[in-house]
Structure formats: structure tokens, C-alpha cells
Design goal:
The protein has helices at 13-25, 49-60, 92-102, 117-121, 124-132, 147-160, 182-192, 210-213, 222-226, 257-260, 279-282, 289-308, and strands at 38-43, 64-69, 76-77, 90-91, 105-109, 137-139, 167-172, 197-201, 231-235, 264-266. The chain has 311 residues and is of the alpha/beta class. It folds into 2 domains: 7-143 and 296-308, Aspartate/ornithine carbamoyltransferase (Rossmann fold, 3-Layer(aba) Sandwich), CATH 3.40.50.1370; 147-292, Aspartate/ornithine carbamoyltransferase (Rossmann fold). Strands 2-1-5-6 form a 4-stranded parallel β-sheet, with helices on both faces. It has a 4-stranded parallel β-sheet with strand order 8-7-9-10. The chain is globular and about 55 Å long. Bound molecules: phosphoric acid mono(formamide)ester.
Length: 311
């Protein structure tokens, strides 16, 4: 693999999922592969799971890891031809090439503005690193995608499904802050690549980018969408059409135990308890959220392994 910016960079998803599941049994079986190689992780935004699981994955492969919170570095300029006489001190053209001197792989987290739709859809930060770095780039959540989360979710569904073609529902849930579309988009990308019966449910106005959801059905009645579901994946996102806006905080969309019945519950975390989902859902045996977080390590490890294999 030359880079990992979207789940579609994986050539054979089912084979990759099986390899990740095997890695869980012996995480150190390829601990020589990353000897004398360095992963540099750049965080433009906060993280708990991505930071710790990706670092653990790299170390399981014998890599060294450097982490830079970009807010502690020079303000970066991304515009080509910019006259840098304001607040930016370092252009991505130098920064990406310089970081490439210290890294064999660069991983980047850079959230959207949620103000400038076209800029966010252009993935300016991530794609600038892809363009100017001289080493492979891994997406640790970008303006529109979160493929490491999606791969962990794929592993989790594969490990726990009871039928060959489970019914999977992606449900919008309320949240007091305007959140990105990245996790929801990544999950929809994943659903295009898995053998599932997939439904999206959300209040009117919360339609995701139609280029991503394409032919998948949208059911505006959450309870109807949940009928016979095997997996319910909850996530909040802000409006895509009225870009970045909160249109509705209706608490009736919170996931409750009564609503989900015997379905397994998924969420990428962090989650606001009793806003997105009630305690009873998160504390039940059918909650997969901790296993999803655990699988983040093996998702990152199989991705790094496939990239290291081609260096
Ligand atoms: N799910 C996820 O990416 O978690 P963090 O934001 O804590 O990394």
C-alpha cells in the first residue's frame, strides 16, 4: 500500500480484515518489520484513541514514533503563492519535505473547518501532505474521512456478526456541538465494501454528501430503521446541506435500550452519555464500543504493516 487516506486504498478488504484478526492473536509476529523506521504522527486536533492505538500499532511493528501536536509548531500555510506576511510562518511545501527527512511514514489528523465546504471537501491539509511529502501518508481523521476508524469497525462487525449478511443501521443522534461528517462518511464508504443490508436514519436536513451515500436507503423514521437490525452505529454529524449547522437537537433521537432491543451497539467514541445513547445501552453486553477501540490498534497495525511491506 502506498498510502492510506481512504478505505479504498485497501486492495482486498476481507483479506486485510482476516489478517488484522490474526494479528490480535500475536501482535508481535512482525516486530522486526519496522526496525529503524519512524512513524511521525501530526495532530492538528485532539485525540485519545487514534493517538494511543496508532502509536501502539507502530511499536508492535518495532517502529520508533514521534508525535507532534501541530499547535506547538509554526503556524502552517497551505495556500500556493501566499504572501506570508500575516500569521503563518512555515509553508507546507517546506514543512512536509522537512518532516519527510525524519519519517518513513507520516500520519496526519486534521479536522474540517465546518465553515468552508469546498475547502473541507478539497481535503487541503491531508492532500497537501500527500502532494509535498516524500513518504507515505496515513489519514488519522481528515476533513471528510476517518478510514482507520472504518477499518476497526469492519474488524468488529466481522468478528461479532451472527449472519453472513447482517442488517446495519447508521443512526444520527443528538449532540450539543456541530460535529464533522468524517466518521459517518467513513462508515458509509465501508458499507459500500461489505456484504450488509445497510440503512441510514436521521432527521430531515441531515442528509450526508449524496456522492458518498449514493444508492443507500434513507429512512427518516428511526424506529422503523431499527427493525430487525443486527448492528446500530450511532453518530452525530452537523448538516451537510446547511454546511456545519445544527438543525435539530431532538432528544427523541437518543439511542435507548428499548429502541435497539437485541441489536449490537456501535460508536467510535468519545460519546456523550445520555445525549447520544443512554447509560443502559453503553453498559449492556451488546455494546461493542470498547472492542471497536481495541480494534483501532489492529486496524492501524495492518495498515502500517502493508505500507512498510512496500517501502
Ligand atoms: N474515535 C476516535 O478517533 O477517537 P479519538 O478522537 O480519541 O482519536
Amino acid at each position: 500500500m502506498k498510502k492510506y487516506t481512504t478505505i479504498n486504498d485497501i486492495e482486498n478488504l476481507s483479506d486485510t480484515i482476516q489478517k488484522a484478526i490474526q494479528l490480535k492473536k500475536n501482535p508481535y509476529q512482525f516486530s522486526d518489520l519496522g526496525q529503524h523506521k519512524t512513524l511521525v504522527m501530526l495532530f492538528f486536533n485532539a485525540s485519545l484513541r487514534t493517538r494511543l492505538s496508532t502509536e501502539k500499532a507502530a511499536k508492535n511493528l518495532g517502529m520508533q514514533v514521534s508525535v507532534l501536536n501541530v499547535t506547538n509548531a509554526w503556524n502552517m500555510e497551505f495556500e500556493d503563492g501566499a504572501v506570508m506576511n500575516l500569521n503563518t510562518s512555515e509553508h507546507i511545501k517546506e514543512a512536509a519535505k522537512v518532516i519527510s527527512q525524519y519519517a518513513d511514514i507520516i500520519a496526519v489528523r486534521a479536522f474540517p473547518t465546518l465553515e468552508d465546504k469546498e475547502k473541507d471537501r478539497a481535503e487541503t491539509v491531508l492532500n497537501s501532505f500527500v502532494k509535498y511529502a516524500t513518504v507515505p501518508i496515513v489519514n488519522m481523521e481528515s476533513a471528510t474521512d476517518h478510514p482507520l476508524q472504518a477499518l476497526a469497525d469492519a474488524i468488529t462487525i466481522t468478528e461479532t456478526k451472527k449472519v453472513d449478511k447482517p442488517k446495519v443501521v447508521l443512526s444520527w443522534a443528538p449532540h450539543p456541538k456541530a460535529l464533522p461528517h468524517s466518521v459517518a462518511n467513513a462508515f458509509v464508504h465501508l458499507m459500500h465494501n461489505m456484504e450488509v443490508d445497510f440503512v441510514i436514519t436521521h432527521p430531515k436536513g441531515y442528509e450526508l454528501d449524496p456522492e458518498i451515500t449514493q444508492q443507500f436507503p434513507i429512512e427518516y423514521d428511526q424506529q422503523k430503521a431499527f427493525e430487525n437490525a443486527d448492528f446500530i452505529y450511532a453518530k452525530n454529524w452537523s448538516s451537510f446541506n446547511e454546511y456545519g449547522k445544527i438543525l435539530n437537537e431532538d432528544p427523541n433521537w437518543m439511542i435507548t435500550q428499548e429502541k435497539i432491543g437485541t441489536a449490537k451497539f456501535m460508536h467510535c467514541l468519545p460519546i456523550r452519555r445520555n445525549v447520544i445513547a443512554e447509560d443502559a445501552v453503553l453498559d449492556a453486553d451488546n455494546s461493542l464500543v470498547i472492542e471497536q477501540a481495541n480494534n483501532r490498534t489492529f486496524a492501524a497495525q495492518i495498515v502500517l504493516q502493508q505500507i512498510l511491506g512496500e517501502l
